[in-house]
Amino acid sequence: MRIGTVTGSVWSTRRVTGVPSGAFLTVAFDASPEVIVAFDVLGTGVGERVLVAQGMSAARRFPDNAPIDALIIGSVDETSTTHRNS
Asked: From CA 51, how far away is CA 77, in angstroms rounded?
């Protein structure tokens, strides 16, 4: 899983069979130039920080092996990090 920020929407009026109702959103990741398109069923908005599952973990959420390889699975309220000295 990865944490990213929703940066925009992708509009698609035609879809292949098996893609359920939902939105395609662009997601950018901190400290990375990478931007992906993730499928959203939560109603996420631009600017929200999200948790994204990719690969088979995303595809298994839907019946009939929908061709989804990135799925927004949660909205991030806050994160914290504890550093350990070795």
From this structure: 10
CA gap 56, 77 in Å, rounded: 25
Helix runs in 1-86, H state only = 56-59
Asked whether the beta carbons of 41 and 22 are under 8 A apart, the reply is: yes
Handedness of CA 70, 31, 5, 82 (dihedral sign): positive
User: What is the per-residue pLDDT across 16-39, written as a single tens digit (0 to 9) for each?
Assistant: 877 888 899 999 998 899 999 999
Q: Which stretches does DSSP call E strand in the chain?
A: 2-10, 23-29, 35-40, 49-54, 70-75
Q: What is the pTM of this model?
A: 0.85
- Tens-place pLDDT, residues 39-65: 999 999 999 999 999 988 887 887 777
Give counts: helices (H), strands (E), the chain.
Answer: 1, 5
